[in-house]
Specification:
The complex is a heterotrimer of chains A (445), B (220) and C (368). Chain A is 50% helix and 6% strand. With 445 residues, chain A is an alpha/beta fold. Helices cover 75% and strands 0% of the residues of chain B. The N and C termini of chain B lie far apart (53 Å). In chain B, 47% of the residues are buried. Chain C has a five-stranded parallel sheet with strand order 2-1-3-7-9, sandwiched between helices. In chain C, strands 4-8 form a two-stranded antiparallel ribbon. A two-stranded antiparallel ribbon of chain C has the order 5-6. Chain C has three domains: 1-50, no CATH class; 51-224, NADH:ubiquinone oxidoreductase-like, 20kDa subunit (Rossmann fold, 3-Layer(aba) Sandwich), CATH 3.40.50.700; 229-302, Cytochrome-c3 hydrogenase, C-terminal domain (Cytochrome-c3 Hydrogenase, Chain A, domain 2), CATH 4.10.480.10. In chain C, α2 (17-30) packs across α3 (35-47). Chain C has helices spanning 6-12, 17-30, 35-47, 63-69, 74-84, 97-110, 139-148, 158-162, 164-167, 178-182, 197-210, 222-225, 229-232, 236-240, 251-255, 273-276, 319-347; strands spanning 53-57, 86-89, 115-120, 123-124, 133-134, 137-138, 150-156, 175-176, 187-190. The N and C termini of chain C lie far apart (109 Å). Classes of the chains: A alpha/beta (445), B mainly alpha (220), C alpha/beta (368).
């Protein structure tokens, strides 16, 4: 990732030279902004979760950070301790007594700063903890609330804030601007001899893309184009709504998140799309499929599909026919698509259509270990050593399947796998499910 | 205060007051949670009744998934021994059943004293083990606060006083019975204010997540 | 002239020495004394001067005296009350009116500081003691006077020991137990409604022979009141096995199962019923199918109903109203608190990211 120009102008959302602090407003204001944001997120659902915790500690046993380090600070529910304190002191039914008896002290700025690494560096919001919790507490949603507060206070790790800020300004976190997109499309189209429609006025399907794909895996642009040609869809990319990643969501920047989502929604409405296809990207699926309608304020006037859902749908409809790829494969379910998104059947339908020898990593689809790069963690470079430790867990899980090919359907996971592969000199390279499908399209008739 | 007056107090005014405070506290806490702002999820559900189907979490979350068992099952079992022992001792003992009949008009056959004492003993031993675990595990020690230890005490006290009364250990029966009922009164009073409230919140908390995850078609 | 001893009295009544020793053995076994103590008792009684007993009755029903006189160990009761020394008892004595009063005064003066004072019934304190008077004097003044010259005060029956029925709520006569008047440290309590005859006579016999017996915290002789009815109950195994009579005429009742569910107070009642039994060891309430009322315990009248089991609450609150009211108040408190929290969400100043629109506070539309 290229460095962002440091804007020294005052005001939130701007970077200041110290790492992990944005803006130049005074400390008291930072704290006030954080608390304000906390309060705003502490509605009935968050309250229920924070009231229900019985301090059983089981979430730690589901968390790759705790499992790999044994350090109790990585206990998931502990990562949102400042939010919990704010809740007990200011919002809960008995908050008066907590204040009166001093049972919960006021949250301090120092506390928030020291919690930054727990809220950002060591939580991918993968949601395994939510599946072990005997009380069924959805801890990732609380982590997101904590991130909202941290962002309001200007306390996002610098490495994560840079791409977020850039996305807010340029429309893409990794510099994949409209111009870059156009260039890439022209190049890929040429290279792979496939037409890639851009900015058509009307299309049934609006296809979106992750800037990770644009910048690192451009082949996937060709792959989607080949698939769309194969199924004969009316589709387009739109230069006013192509970036599916949503760093606002990852950083806890509500406005950035909302703007990024609205760009996609408006583009889809503009082309009168019936379906919006989200790329191989985990949090993009969360942001539009499950949060999009809430940002929009009403039901979305189109269907939202993850690319794997689209592929499975087309296979089911008989429009997509594949050649057999009998290799032994294992599939890394991206957390935000499977565990937290509900898409785990579709990829398996695709593997069946490919005739692949699928070797599962876990008994429950979607309960595999997180790659360690989600939730924006891959961008935070000072967290790399920790990320490699949790990646090792993932590596072991992949190895245990004995499969020859490692497949995923999230370019962010893929990025994490590539980085981990290089670090550990591992022999496995994560493949894209979409690209495998595109490489195995039956001859068109 | 001697045994007779403690017993009269514990099963008289203290019991009535404990029930009233418990009811008041439960209503306060639930209302205080549910009257907070709520958001409407406008996303299109995975399928029509997928949210409802997610409610199976209310039962299914009672046992850890295969993926987690290796790391959590042992202490889950100890926790279950405590809970089941407690339930057997509370719901199976004839004098307790009489209390329930007095309050709600329900009744069922009791179990022999020996079984009750065994269940209570298992429960007490498990509770001691769980306290040991809480004190020795860095994760639990970090999370624990006054509520955890006080609730432990308030939960443990009726078990121990009940067993002591049953076996005639310690003070005379009347005093032990008075202490036993009084400790149960305290348990009722404390229920809405500490983590004991999980007996009620459990359903809501699991249900909320179950409905949300179910809506998405995500595993619960 | 030397004082007449107990043996002298017995001799006059035609008791042989052999019969006397047998009597001592019987009394000793009642008191759970060892054979050595029985011999010691006989030795002491032979030379003990004949004691004087003053028996005062206040707010009582004469049930205690009935129990005593209908004792099936007549030797012992007769020994004490007919032969030894009963100087005054307004029910039993032949004399009446002023003659009786004079006899009492004389007996008390003669044995001042040495007589045993037995009190039966509670002492009313309201209206200056007007609820119980004898010869124009209130019970409380009679008691104070008699107690001041007594070597020992024995409160017989639960009324004298703990206030009993007159003391039960709302206690219209302001009844108090004997110990409230004469001081707890001077009293030996022999509670029961009534007490077992052998317990009353046994205590007096013991006192005459050995002096004050060992007492429990309620000043009851430990030799009779150490165990609960429950501890010694022959139906205890049914309790332990959870076998209870549910009604007075069900199969459990016929089979003689535990009466706990029918309100038995045996577990908290200390008395000798289960071991000594009544009517010469014939039976006791539980054996005849009725739960123990707990009559030898303080406030037994006010411990909920006699047929209400021990583990159930005794409060008389209207639960629907109290709990309904508590729930309503709780909801008000909770909703009120939530409203305060929500208003704080609305009042918040603009946050750092400057993106918070009004109208959606607490409704986070960007959450996962």
């Amino acid at each position: 990732m290229s460095a962002t120009t440091i804007d020294t102008a005052t005001g939130p959302g701007k970077l200041e030279p110290s790492a992990g602090r944005q803006g130049t407003f005074p400390d008291a204001k930072r704290l006030e902004y954080a608390m304000t944001s906390f309060l705003q997120d502490l509605g009935a659902t968050a309250a229920l979760y924070l009231e229900a915790c019985v301090h059983c500690g089981q979430c730690a046993e589901a968390c790759h950070y705790y499992v790999q380090t044994g350090d109790p600070k990585y206990t998931p529910i502990w990562k949102i301790e400042p939010l919990k304190k704010a809740y007990k002191r200011h919002v809960g039914p008995f908050s008066f007594f907590y204040r009166l008896l001093g049972l919960k002290k006021a949250v301090t700025l120092a506390e928030l700063e020291s919690w930054q690494e727990l809220i950002y560096d060591s939580c991918t919001m993968c949601g395994r903890c939510a599946l072990v919790c005997p009380m069924g507490i959805d801890i990732p949603s609380l982590v997101l609330a904590a991130r909202h507060g941290m962002q309001a206070a200007g306390l996002v790790p610098r490495d994560l804030w840079e791409p977020t800020d850039r996305a807010n300004r340029e429309g893409s976190p990794l510099g994949a601007t409209k111009e870059v997109l156009k260039e890439r499309i022209a190049w890929v189209s040429d290279e792979h001899s496939v037409e890639i429609p851009l900015d058509r006025d009307r299309a049934d399907v609006l296809v979106t893309v992750s800037s990770v794909e644009i910048m690192k895996y451009p082949t996937s642009l060709a792959a989607i184009a080949k698939v769309m040609r194969h199924v004969g869809a009316s589709w387009t990319f739109r230069s006013d709504g192509y970036e599916a990643t949503n760093f606002g969501l990852l950083a806890g920047d509500r406005k950035g998140q909302r703007d990024a989502t609205m760009r996609l929604i408006n583009a889809a409405i503009a082309v009168n799309a019936k379906v919006v296809i989200l790329p191989e990207c985990g949090h993009a699926y969360q942001a539009l499929r499950w949060v999009g309608a809430n940002v929009y304020g009403k039901a979305l006037p189109f269907r939202v599909l993850h690319i794997s859902e689209f592929l499975a749908q087309e296979i089911r409809a008989g429009r997509l026919t594949l050649k057999t790829d009998p290799r032994s494969m294992t599939f890394h379910d991206p957390c935000q698509v499977a565990r937290r998104g509900g898409v785990s059947g579709a990829p398996r339908e695709i593997f069946r259509a490919l005739g692949a020898d699928l070797r599962e990593m876990s008994r429950t689809p979607g309960l595999n270990w997180c790659c360690g790069g989600g939730g924006g963690v891959i961008t935070v470079h000072h967290a790399d050593p920790l990320r490699y430790r949790v990646f090792h867990l993932k590596m072991q899980q992949v190895e245990e399947t004995g499969a020859d090919v490692l497949v995923s359907s999230c370019s962010n996971c893929r990025l994490t796998f590539d980085d981990g592969q290089a670090h550990f000199h591992w022999d496995k390279t994560a493949q894209s499910l979409l690209e495998i499908v595109a490489n195995n399209l039956a001859e068109t008739h | 205060m001697n045994g007779a007056s403690l017993l009269d107090f514990a099963r008289g005014p203290a019991f009535e007051a404990a029930l009233a405070i418990m009811t008041f506290g439960i209503a306060w806490r639930l209302a205080g949670i549910f009257a907070l702002a709520r958001s409407v999820d406008r996303s299109e559900p995975r399928s029509r009744f997928s949210g409802l189907r997610g409610l199976r979490i209310i039962l299914s979350r009672s046992w850890p998934r295969a993926e987690f068992r290796e790391r959590v099952l042992e202490w889950d079992i100890v926790g279950y021994l405590f809970h089941i022992g407690y339930a057997v001792a509370f719901l199976g003992y004839a004098p307790h059943i009489l209390l329930i009949r007095n309050l709600f008009g329900l009744r069922w056959p009791g179990l022999p004293g020996g079984i009750i004492a065994f269940a209570a003993g298992v429960s007490a031993a498990s509770l001691l083990a769980l306290l040991g675990h809480r004190l020795s595990s860095p994760v639990l020690r970090q999370l624990s606060n006054f509520d955890d230890y006080f609730t432990w005490l308030v939960t443990f006290a009726p078990l121990v006083t009940g067993l002591m009364a049953y076996y005639g250990i310690g003070a005379d029966f009347q005093l032990m019975l008075g202490l036993h009922i009084f400790s149960a009164d305290i348990l009722f009073v404390w229920l809405p204010f500490g983590k004991l409230m999980h007996v009620i919140l459990l359903v809501f908390s699991r249900g909320t997540t179950g409905a949300a995850y179910g809506r998405r078609g995500a595993p619960v | 002239m030397t004082e007449e001893t107990i043996l002298d009295v017995l001799g006059r009544r035609g008791f042989t020495r052999r019969a006397f020793l047998q009597l001592c053995a019987t009394v000793a076994s009642t008191l759970a004394l060892s054979p050595v103590d029985a011999a010691e008792m006989a030795r002491r009684l032979e030379y003990k001067p004949r004691p004087t007993v003053i028996y005062l009755s206040f707010q009582e029903c004469t049930g205690c005296l009935e129990s005593l006189t209908r004792s099936f160990s007549p030797g012992l009761a007769a020994l004490i009350f007919n032969d030894i020394s009963l100087a005054y008892n307004d029910t039993l004595q032949a004399a009446a009116g002023r003659a009786a009063e004079r006899a009492r005064d004389t007996a008390m003066k003669d044995a001042w500081g040495k007589y045993i004072l037995i009190v039966d019934g509670s002492v009313p304190m309201s209206e200056n003691g007007a609820y119980c008077t004898v010869g124009g004097r209130s019970a409380v003044s009679d008691l104070r006077h008699a107690a001041s010259g007594a070597a020992a005060v024995v409160a017989v029956g639960t009324c004298a020991a703990f206030g009993g029925l007159p003391y039960a709520a709302p206690n219209p006569t302001g009844a108090v137990p004997v110990s409230d008047i004469v001081g707890e440290e001077r009293v030996i309590n022999v509670p029961g409604c009534p007490p077992i005859a052998e317990v009353i006579t046994g205590v007096i016999m013991y006192y005459t022979t050995f002096g004050a017996p060992a007492l429990d915290s309620l000043r009851r002789p430990e030799s009779f009141y150490a165990n609960t009815i429950h501890d010694r109950c022959y139906r205890r195994p049914f309790y332990d096995r959870g076998m209870f009579a549910k009604t007075f005429d069900d199969e459990g009742a016929r089979q003689g199962w535990c009466l706990f569910e029918l309100g038995c107070k045996g577990p908290i009642t200390r008395n000798a019923c289960a071991t000594m039994k009544w009517i010469n060891g014939t039976s006791y309430p539980i054996e005849s199918g009725h739960p123990c009322l707990g009559c030898s315990e303080p406030n037994f009248w006010d411990k909920g109903g006699f047929y209400q089991s021990l583990s159930t609450p005794t409060g008389h609150w209207s639960r629907e109203h109290v709990l309904g009211g508590a729930a309503a108040l709780g909801v008000v408190a909770g909703v009120g608190k939530a409203a305060v929290s929500r208003s704080r969400q609305k009042r918040v100043p603009k946050s750092g990211s400057g993106d918070q629109k009004s109208g959606d506070k607490g409704k986070d539309d960007t959450k996962l």
